[in-house]
Amino acid sequence: MNREKAREKAVALVEQMTVEEAASQLSYRAPAIERLGIPSYNWWNEALHGVARAGMATMFPQAIGMAATFDPLLVQELGDIAATEGRAKYNAAKAHGDTDIYKGLTFWSPNINIFRDPRWGRGQETFGEDPYLTGEMGCAYVKGLQGEGETMKAAACAKHFAVHSGPEDLRHEFNAEATKKDMAETYLPAFERLVREAKVESVMGAYNRTNGEPCCASRELMGHLRGEWGFEGHFVSDCWAIRDFHEGHHVTDGPVESAAMALNAGCDLNCGCTYEKILAAVECGLIEEKTVRESAIRLFTTRYMLGIMGEGSEFDAIPYTAVECEVHLEKGEQAAREGCVLLKNNGMLPLKAESLKTLGVIGPNADSIASLIGNYHGTSSTYITVQRGLQDALAGKVRVLCSEGCHLYKDKLSNLSYDRDDRLSEALTVAENSDAVVLVVGLDETLEGEQGDTSNPYGSADKKDLYLPESQRRLMDAVLKVGKPTVIVLMAGSAIDLGEAGEKADAILLSWYPGARGGKAVAQLLLGEYSPSGKLPVTFYHNTQLEEMPAFTDYSMKNRTYRYFGGKPLYPFGYGLTYGKVEITGAELQGDKVLVHLKNDGQTTDEVVEVYAENRGSELAPTHPRLVAFARASVPQNGTAEVQIAIDPKRLQVIDRNGQPKEEGKVFLYVGLGQPDERTEELTGQKVICLVLNG
Fold this sequence. Notes:
The protein is an alpha/beta fold. Among the domains are: 335-564, Rossmann fold (3-Layer(aba) Sandwich), CATH 3.40.50; 582-692, Immunoglobulin-like (Sandwich), CATH 2.60.40. Helices cover 29% and strands 17% of the residues. It is built from 21 helices and 23 strands. The strands form seven sheets. It has a six-stranded mixed beta sheet, with helices on both faces. The chain has a four-stranded antiparallel beta sheet with strand order 18-17-22-23, with no helix packed on it. Strand 15 and strand 16 (593-600) form a beta hairpin.
């Protein structure tokens, strides 16, 4: 049902409640109210890249890998799949009277924070460092989750509002300071788009303070959200974030004051237990009863829109057999293939099975399930690692020799070994006896992730630098010295500097955390069954360039991300190679669109055409041209293709120091297969086409 009708029902229902009953509904574990026929409901569920933490589900690539597809239509399909499986699992649980955590239809996804610093452990959950790309992918995923029918299929949640991207170990006490320009240009645009364009049903507040105010009770942020943008859904705190008001931020004296501060500011739902003090706050005059009821109305409006208050919906018929069905699994594999980024290739790839007798597969992530899944993941009935994917693809054709090579980060695999590197001799033996080597290295959720969820050797969920652990560096150096043709498959959720190994390797394929069956997709790409076509949604820096950046705790955009970074990156945002030989042969303006002509003298491949804008003569413009549009195109072997890309005029504005948009400077558009920067041209050998928009 539409929001107006759902709200009418919610108002009528809440009017029948006592204030005690209404207050009880503002907890993520909302109890049943039997006299009114209201079932219990747990609001906490996750679907960052498929339904998570709730048993079996189709697991897509981690969000950063989804972003690398530059394919919003596919991401919307993935959102719809998550909603379908969420409904299937909800229907099954409901049939058994199970309303526990992770069984509901309110998914606290997507994470649309800006991945501004490559050390942030949770950056893997985001759609990268660019506000425009993040908005595109975020809107697509929300539309997929929520659907466009009379009944909302599932409720999405834009998180974490706002200005939140580490450090993880300070988040419960930290104050992120950002200028009005940085707020309007970088930190808020994706949230605004998800509210205005995708009609996201929920927004989650961050743990930290922003410009002095706790995000879950920020008058400034709520002014944007409910005032300027017209948000009508419900607002939820991050888990136990309201407790931080008095224990971490020290802006209140205790839980009663914290509950009052959050609820009065417009935080409707508490993930945590602080709202148990709402009635005490009402009794002492800190909260009015009408405020309690308004939040309850917002929450029941969502439940009515989902069709789960007894009225039923078309989604009640979705069977449990929809979970991990063949169509869903195939879409997950497509996303993994499209998201892998070919960073380097001297001609070694694709591997030709007919010219190989033996292939060596070496590395701690070669047969690692953890390296497939990222964080906030579900459970798969089948996992296909890179090693398994290659073994399956080459069965009966090529002998595959394997070695773990080293521990992910420890000096040795066996505690009883005398020396470190106790698997190194095996790895070298495998390399020596192979015609080519696939060296699979990287991280997993134990090394980068959310505070409390990781067990990394650095004592936090963030990275201390951009290098791989020393055990892996020693392995890479030793294997590469053997001299066999070697491709490095890098599995990680963030920027990595491979150092000398990256220079010596014949090819590098970045697979991110590609999902439960991602090893099959990686094998297909390595063997040339498909061409890689992903693009970097983040900048890959040299580790030494961290010294040039502001402190991790500095939220200024100065010298951060491709828009403001002053150095030459290792691999630029928007960069990625293919097996094709695609070039743009022409581009022309057609009103508010750009028509782009492509030709391909190589293997059939997808390509991503990227359009960047520069406002010359404006002191308000970012340091470098910024992404304003993109589109994927399939270009056949020895063939041509055309793609028409719409340019939103709002993307061509600059932001002044008061956070206001301005039309300023002469606008130049750069059309290419990457950024209009020196490093991209150096890596690809291709120049962009420049179009003058206004003069």
